[in-house]
Amino acid sequence: MNLGGLFHLGLRHLAGNRAKTVLLVFAFTLVWLLPSAIAILVGKVETHLRSRAAATPLVLGSAGSALELTFNALHFTKPEIATLTYGEALDVSETGLGQSIPLYARFTAGESRIVGTTFDYFRFREFSFEEGRAFLRMGECVVGSAVAKKNGIRAGDAIVSSPETLFDLAGVYPLRMTVTGILKPTGSPDDDAVFVDLKTTWIIEGLGHGHKDAGEATEEERLAADEGDVVRLNASILEYNEVTPETMDSFHFHGELGDNPITTAIVIPNGAKEQALLKGRYASSKTRQLVTPAEEMDELFATVFSVQLAVVWMLILVGVATLALGALTFTLSYRLRHREFVSLRHLGASPGILRGLIVFEGAFVLVVSLLLSAGLLVLIERIAPTIIAHYL
Predict the structure, then answer these.
(1) Residues 282, 288: contact at Cβ < 8 Å?
(2) CB 138 within 8 A of CB 247
(3) Around Cβ 244, how many Cβ atoms within 10 Å?
(4) Share of the chain above pLDDT 70, in %
(5) SS3 187
(6) Residue among 265, 268, 294 nearest 51 (CA)
(7) Which of 149, 161, 167, 375 has its CA 20 to 30 A from that of 308?
(8) How confident is the model at residue 252 (pLDDT cuts 50, 70, 90)?
(9) Which candidate, 198, 196, 192, 183, places its Cα nearest to that of 263?
């Protein structure tokens, strides 16, 4: 029997036992694929997170988890973190040591995070507009490219903020916001955000509102306890749920704007010396913290890599066991095919040819599984940045 005959018999046997062949190829593919895929994904996640962290010098926030604070400032997650006041962010700029950019990332519009900030954030992230312009007043918003694409939004459309609870007993209504611009894709969490003026987020929270002018209220809309020039209105006066040129003048805030909340503030020091001085100002604070995102990423990935190493070693052990089971499968196959091999011997096949059949079948499974895993790794390498950018 020549080599061509060996290949023919081997392929015929594999085709006749498709289920066993497919299972072995699938099992061996996972052996090669999983450790490498984990390494690729962790590396891509690290690159993605570190790049945004490296571009953000410092983040100011309330004392607590520095990592949660970092993720709120960089990725707009962890909206439940403790807040600080807008005035505290302004204090940083007033020191002359650097600039602060306040962020209030707590509310949502559908699945998109609403981020209250100033136009300084647009300059800091170097945004470009695909369509339209930046917001100029309360009630206007700019949406990221992914938000616009997913929801079919164009400049001039409107989106509505989502209520925090189904039954809002505080009477805070969802706010209808006009889309003034759409950002170009950045490959960052900014693509999935809705950017508004800080006052807009405070209106969503109920710290500011607009309604009919008190002087125009009817007797039924007034409380009986009016005193002098003070007109008190009852609950029948509905608050406006949209800021328009006609209603804008009626929107107002009670108390000082500096006392209103923000979740974080990005701090941009004027230099290395100023950065050291700023960190020294908050080093002893028990209520506030000034963190360096790059350092937080270092600590995060030190933990991730230790877990990754343990997982990879476990996968290697599982892979060795899988390969051993595969070898056992081919050994048992050799014994179960005794009558077939006896017939082949009668037809003139040598013992070497018979052993070659088993080797060919094993090599076929190994080669196909290696090629399949290599193809999947190339696919993962290509699509991983897009998936990571979307979810992170």
Answers:
(1) yes
(2) no
(3) 11
(4) 77
(5) coil
(6) 294
(7) 375
(8) confident
(9) 198
**pLDDT value for 234:** 43
- Please state, in angstroms and rounded to a whole number, the distance separating the CA atoms of residues 128 and 67: 29
φ/ψ of residue 60, rounded to 5: -105, 140
| Structural contact between residues 142 and 135, judged by C-beta atoms closer than 8 angstroms | yes
Q: What is the C-alpha to C-alpha distance for residues 63 and 370, in angstroms, rounded to an integer?
A: 50
Q: Strand 176-183 relative to strand 140-143: parallel, antiparallel, unpaired?
A: parallel
- Can you read off the two tokens belonging to residue 34? 């999983």
The Cα–Cα gap between 311 and 43 comes to: 15
Q: How far apart are CA 205 and CA 202, in angstroms?
A: 5
Report whether pLDDT(390) > 90. Answer: no
Using the 8-state DSSP alphabet, how is residue 86 labeled? H
Closest by alpha carbon to 192, among 241, 140, 143, 259?
A: 143
Distance (Å) of CA 220 to CA 134, 212, 233? 41, 13, 9
Which three-class secondary structure state does DSSP give residue 178? strand
Amino acid letter, 62: S
Other Cβ atoms closer than 10 A to 164: 15
pLDDT for 315: 82
10 Å Cβ neighbour count for 345?
13
Counting Cα atoms < 13 Å in the Cβ hemisphere of 243 gives 27
Alpha-carbon torsion, ordered 130, 132, 133, 135, to 10 deg = -110
DSSP summary character for residue 195 = E
Cα–Cα distance between 208 and 257 in angstroms, integer? 10
* Token duo for residue 269: 């020091």
DSSP for residue 368: H
In one-letter notation, the amino acid at residue 295 is E
Q: What is the DSSP letter of 311?
A: H
Angle at CA 73, nearest 5°, toward 70 and 74?
80
Query: In sequence order, what are the residues at sequence separation of 6 or more whose Cβ sits closer than 8 angstroms to the Cβ of residue 3?
Result: none
166: left (phi over 0), alpha (psi -120 to 50) or beta: alpha
- AA letter at 239: E
Q: What is the pTM of this model?
A: 0.75
| Alpha-carbon gap, residue 161 to 268, rounded angstroms | 30
- How far, in Å, are 66, 98, 205 from residue 295 at the CA level? 10, 20, 33
